[in-house]
Every structure is written in C-alpha cells, then in structure tokens.
C-alpha cells in the first residue's frame, strides 16, 4: 500500500507519528484482500488552532472504489483514531457488498429474488489471498524477537506465581518457550496469516503456560531429572573478548556516548515502574491486566489482543479502559513513563 501522510500547522512529533503508524498497521490488515500496488492512502493532520484542535482527513483509493473520512478533536490521538475507525467501518461495509451479501440464499428467500450469478471479489484479479505462516517465518521471528517473547513469558509466570496459581519456580521460561515453538512448528495446529504471526505465538505461549500449570501438582516438589535453570546468564565472556582483549587498554575513542541509549539507572527505574503497574493491576482483574499490558507495554493492537486472548474486540477495549481508570485511582506512584502508558491506553 502506498501511503502519504502530511502534517500541517504542527510539528510531526513522535507521539503523533506513532499513533498514525499504529492505526496504519490496523488498516493494512483490513486490506489484505486487495493487491498492495493497487491501494493508496493520502492523509493529512491539520492543527487549525489550539482552540479548534486537530482535523484528520483520509482518502483511500481501492481498485473498486474511493473512500474518504474526516474527523476533528482537540486531542490529536483521538482525532487520528476516530478518522481511521470511520475509514475501517466504511471498508468493512464495502467488502461486505463485494462479497455479494445481498445475493446470499437466505436473503434471496427473504426478498423473493432469484440467485444472482456473479464472480466473488476474492476470485477476481484485484484480490490477493494472504499466505499462511511457514516454518521459516516462525524461525525468523524467533531469531529476531526471542528476548522480547522471553520477557513476556517471564512477566506472565511472575504474575501467576504472585497470585499463587502456580508454585514458585515450578515452570521455567525455557519450558514455556520450547512448548510454544514446538506447537508453532507442528502441523497439528492451524496456522494463521503471516500478518498474525506475532499474536499467534503469544497466544501459543499463554496456552503453554496454562497447560503446564494444569499439569503442576502445586506441591512444590522438584523432579530430580529437571535441569537447574535458575541462571539466565550466558556463562561466557566470549562476546566481550572479541572486542577488547584482556591486555588492551581502553581509550577515549572506544567510549562513545549515545544519548539515545538508556543508562542502567534509567532501565532499572523503567523496570521498577512496569512492575509497580503490574502489581497495581493484580486487583483490577486478570482480563484488565492482560489487555492493558499487551496494549501499552507489548504494543499490540486491539485486534491482535483479541486474537491472543480469544475475546471480542469490544471486550478488550472495555478491559483496557477499566485498567486505565483503575491505575489513575490506585497507582501509588506516578512518573513520566506511567503517564505515557495511561495516555497511550486512550487510543484503544
């Protein structure tokens, strides 16, 4: 899909740009049935005045029609979300018309019409069938994103241990990852489209935790044949020795300060705040905590969270909203990170 977004009367800030990219990703999933080279989107984000707010205009050109949407709001993120939601709603109705819903047998009987012989849009040259996930796709994703998946599994195991759903240390991260990857590579599981690979792997991971927890007696007994996985380190300094030799002195040229890299103190503060958010949401409910963490920290869209949790999108939105309101009332400490998480959750 060809995309061109212009910003008028305001600077293209990272917050506005990230909101636009988030909804573009959501829009692209609705357009997988069309050939990408035949689809183009032109949009503009205009700030008329501080009082009038922001106006977002979108114009989508498809092989079969043109669709436009325009929304205004004092908040830029809300205006962007409203414009894309309006566009997606029109796309859904247009795709329904292309599928000849009016010619379905049930509707024909209701209206007393004869069947209309037409070629479904999915069989025309303008349509493209999404490819399913392959073993190579799974391997490529794991190679690039294994640390992120591990952090998610660690967070879920810690939450279940704190809630005493499983015994502490009874399930390791490696066990969950191994089972999730094994199921992903197995032909026994139905594979989704390539665009849904990441939420599918996250769902397999949560399913693996549930299955392993169901097989856990909860007595805290550790089998003698279970390897000790308490250490997360690599156990080797080979990576360091490849750059600095033991007898080599560090020079000033070897130490380059990068402002974009967080300091250890910054990382520790970030981890501590995320842990505090998780602990606070424990009393808000599992669905609320899960939806909020997946949306604000893991970066999934509402549709992807619905795939992971197997819940309707509207229920996911309500869970994110409930978690946000709960945090605003009960989070004991606020900092810029927690404020950004709470603000970002408004786009759900």
TrEMBL record:
<feature type="compositionally biased region" description="Basic and acidic residues">
    <location>
        <begin position="225"/>
        <end position="234"/>
    </location>
</feature>
<dbReference type="InterPro" id="IPR036388">
    <property type="entry name" value="WH-like_DNA-bd_sf"/>
</dbReference>
<dbReference type="Pfam" id="PF02482">
    <property type="entry name" value="Ribosomal_S30AE"/>
</dbReference>
<feature type="region of interest" description="Disordered">
    <location>
        <begin position="214"/>
        <end position="239"/>
    </location>
</feature>
<feature type="domain" description="RNA polymerase sigma factor 70 region 4 type 2">
    <location>
        <begin position="288"/>
        <end position="325"/>
    </location>
</feature>
<protein>
    <submittedName>
        <fullName>Sigma-24, ECF subfamily</fullName>
    </submittedName>
</protein>
<dbReference type="InterPro" id="IPR036567">
    <property type="entry name" value="RHF-like"/>
</dbReference>
<dbReference type="GO" id="GO:0016987">
    <property type="term" value="F:sigma factor activity"/>
</dbReference>
<dbReference type="GO" id="GO:0003677">
    <property type="term" value="F:DNA binding"/>
</dbReference>
<dbReference type="InterPro" id="IPR003489">
    <property type="entry name" value="RHF/RaiA"/>
</dbReference>
<dbReference type="Pfam" id="PF08281">
    <property type="entry name" value="Sigma70_r4_2"/>
</dbReference>
<dbReference type="InterPro" id="IPR013249">
    <property type="entry name" value="RNA_pol_sigma70_r4_t2"/>
</dbReference>
<dbReference type="GO" id="GO:0006352">
    <property type="term" value="P:DNA-templated transcription initiation"/>
</dbReference>
<dbReference type="InterPro" id="IPR013324">
    <property type="entry name" value="RNA_pol_sigma_r3/r4-like"/>
</dbReference>
